TrEMBL record:
Domain of life: Bacteria
InterPro entries membership: Biofilm_reg_signaling (IPR052155), EAL_dom (IPR001633), EAL_sf (IPR035919), GGDEF_dom (IPR000160), Nucleotide_cyclase (IPR029787), PAS (IPR000014), PAS-assoc_C (IPR000700), PAS-like_dom_sf (IPR035965)
Protein name, per record: EAL domain-containing protein
Domain PAS, residue spans: 140-216
Residue ranges annotated for the PAC domain, each copy included: 213-264
Domain EAL intervals: 438-692
Transmembrane segments: none
Residues annotated as domain GGDEF: 296-429
Molecular function via GO: catalytic activity
Cofactor(s) needed by this chain: Mg(2+)
Length: 692
């Protein structure tokens, strides 16, 4: 009886376990099949399998597994071998549903034994979405690889200790190294130590600051020098931890060479290779600072070649240029190592003598300099006799700043000219008293505006490629009944120094905008007007409001007004300059850097201030057809400006040859006597905009 009960309990227990396992098979949400391995026929399927494949049980059970699989029997074998080789416990297949849809599945299979018979169980996972996501990821990664390998920038990643992880194709081509060769190496394995140290400092800066870092990096190799603009930034994992640094480096070697050429031209005279006016005055300022500390004196010698104009007029500029080069060499031969010789322009030179204990110390040098000109100049088999005249101003007696010393040395030179030339003269206070012209001008200019002695004239600006007039520049003229026609070169500095330029500038702007409004109305075109702003006007806190009100009063759009600013305005670096320019730019007014290339230019200004237009000085334009240096510089300036999205205007165009060359260099606009002389408002209004 006990044995019978035990058997009954065992039977009940087995029945419960059978129900349990069957429910685990049938009710499980995973797709499960029991397959006869001998025939490949489905013997059992759970509800999840029926729902997934879309069959009823009567149809599904008994189907061959090959009816589901899209692969051939041979392909199934290959997949199984591949899984075995990779030690995978699953196989990848594509199964066809009752609807005809194809799904990607992973099949986990294994043997089971029932009553000495072996069957195959399969657990099937629908991985269609995952496969699509993986494919999309692969395609995205491929696109990224294609993008990285087709960009001209050098791109690379390094781990936190500086070892390379990856590089793009541009890096391989630039440094002739493959990714496999560079992986695991550092910059110290690849570049000179000084270069590698700079790279490492910039890498660590990006890592430590946890932000992008931009810098210029120079790479010196055995046969070349390359300059890169590099941006380096940290790479982070999903937890926000920095695990690497990425660098994107753009080769700016050619741009730097062009900038260096422009910088050199901005500081050195192209003909004589001497420091130009800007650099000479900069050196003078340095000497004055040193003299303030040491108590020594500084002498400024202003030198002019006597009757040089006759050489140019009679023998031509080519001979004149050779004379200037020879003269520059002779001047350099008389100075000490601490002194400076510069060319101010034309036949005017400057010598700066530092560390003097008395103005008389300059006497020996200036007399030695004059003796150098007692020797004949031999130019192209010609013997030329040339003399020089010099004026001397001494710090601190004759001035305490560069401009005053230069001006006083200039006056002393003219005094020496009056004494008979081929000599020198020291500045004295009597010279100031004798400058009656300046005093007369200063007196006459006061009230000139009220007496209506000023007039605004206009010089047209045209499109280089079509000759169409697109605007004009407003120019100020002054006629005084007593003095006659006075040059702006004379009266503008006086107006600037006396502060009269504020009212005069407002007069010019108001007149110019009024004429522009009439001009636009006549032609129904958005013609432009350029107006010059002086340094003194920028110190007027009402400048921006005045300009805005003038635009409103004239009914002219802000983007039709272009304000020309000389680089001298920007040299002070005062914060109000940038603030004013920014405010004008926000109004929509176009800003033009005037006289670019005259020796005061700084590429840094183009980066600091919101300029829209770059105006190339007439001195460069005049030389583009005869001087390769001028032509190359103008070409570089135009290319640089266009690279910065600036419009280029060339001034002083006087010949068709100059205009044709500017057109070939892709210059945008031009003005000059060839295109139109300054004219009165009435004449401007009736001009045809298109060339005949």
């Amino acid at each position: 009886m006990v044995a019978t009960n035990d058997r009954l309990n065992v039977s009940l227990s087995l029945s419960k376990h059978e129900q349990l396992y069957r429910q685990m098979f049938e009710k499980n949400q995973a797709i499960k099949l029991i397959i006869d391995p001998a025939q490949g026929r489905i013997l059992e399927a759970n509800e999840a399998a029926l729902r997934f494949y879309g069959y009823d049980k009567a149809t599904f059970v008994g189907m061959l597994i090959t009816e589901l699989n899209t692969l051939t029997e041979e392909e199934v074998k290959q997949e199984m071998l591949l899984a075995k080789k990779e030690a995978r416990v699953f196989h990848n297949f594509r199964h066809r549903l009752a609807s005809g849809d194809i799904r990607d599945v992973e099949v986990y299979s294994g043997p089971i034994t029932v009553e000495d018979k072996t069957f195959l169980y399969s657990i099937i996972l629908d991985v269609t979405r995952r496969k699509k996501a993986e494919q999309a990821l692969l395609e995205t990664e491929q696109r990224q690889r294609d993008l990285l390998n087709n960009t001209s920038s050098v791109i690379y990643t390094k781990d936190l200790s500086g070892h390379y992880l990856s590089i793009n194709r541009a890096y391989e081509l630039c440094f002739d190294v493959s990714e496999s060769e560079i992986q695991g190496k550092t910059d110290f394995d690849l570049f000179p130590e000084e270069v590698a140290r700079k790279f490492r400092r910039n890498d660590l800066k990006a890592i430590n600051l946890n932000q992008p870092v931009e810098s210029e990096e120079t790479v010196l190799t055995a046969n070349k020098r390359q300059v890169f603009l590099s941006v380096k930034f940290p790479l982070k994992n999903a937890r926000g931890e920095i695990y690497a640094v990425c660098g994107i480096s753009t080769d700016i070697t050619q741009r730097k060479l062009a900038e260096e050429k422009i910088q050199h031209q901005a500081h050195y005279d192209a003909l004589t290779r001497l420091p130009n006016r800007f650099l000479a005055l900069e050196r003078l300022a340095q000497m004055l600072n040193e003299a303030q500390r040491s108590g020594h004196q500084v002498a400024v010698l202003f030198i002019d070649l006597d009757d040089f104009k006759k050489i140019n007029d009679s023998l031509g500029h080519e001979v004149g240029d050779k004379v200037l080069v020879e003269a520059a060499g002779r001047l350099q031969g008389v100075i000490r190592q601490v002194d400076v010789v510069g060319r101010l322009g034309g036949d005017e030179f400057i010598i700066l003598l530092g560390g003097l204990s008395g103005g008389v110390d300059a006497k020996a040098i200036v007399e030695k300099m004059l003796q150098q000109f007692h020797r004949a100049f031999y130019i192209d088999s010609r013997e030329l006799i040339l003399t020089a005249t010099a004026g001397i101003a001494v710090y601190p007696e004759d001035g305490r700043d560069s401009s005053t010393l230069l001006r006083n040395a200039d006056m002393a030179m003219y005094q020496a000219k009056a004494l008979g030339r081929n000599t020198y003269s020291y500045f004295n206070e009597k010279m100031n008293r004798d400058v009656s012209r300046r005093l007369e001008l200063e007196q006459a200019i006061r009230g000139a505006l009220q007496r209506q002695e000023f007039e605004v004239v206009y010089q047209v600006q045209v499109k280089v490629n079509s000759g169409e007039i697109i605007g004009a520049e407003a120019l100020l003229r002054w006629y005084n009944p007593k003095l006659g026609q006075v040059s702006p070169v004379e009266f503008i500095p006086i107006a600037e120094q006396t502060g009269l330029i504020i009212d005069i500038g407002q007069f010019v702007l108001t007149q110019a905008l009024s004429v522009l409004a009439s001009w636009q109305q006549r032609h129904h075109r958005a013609l432009k007007m350029s107006v010059n702003l002086s340094p003194r006007q920028f110190r007027d806190i009402k400048l921006v409001d005045m300009i805005e009100q003038a635009l409103i009063q004239a009914g002219v759009a802000a983007n039709c007004l272009e304000l020309e600013i000389t680089e001298g305005v920007l040299m002070s670096g005062h914060s109000y300059i940038k603030k004013t320019l920014s405010a004008l730019s926000v109004l929509g007014i176009y800003l033009s850097m005037d006289d670019f290339g005259t020796g005061y230019s700084s590429l840094n200004y183009l980066r600091q201030y919101p300029f829209d237009v770059l105006k190339i000085d007439r001195s460069f334009v005049q030389g583009i057809t005869t001087e390769s240096t001028d032509r190359k510089l103008v070409n570089a300036a135009i290319a640089m400006a266009h690279g910065l999205n600036l419009t280029v205007v060339a001034e002083g165009v006087e010949t068709q040859e100059q205009l044709h060359l500017l057109k070939s260099l892709n210059c945008d606009f031009a003005q000059g006597y060839l295109l139109g002389k300054p004219c009165r408002a009435k004449q401007l209004l009736v001009l045809e905009l298109m060339p005949l």
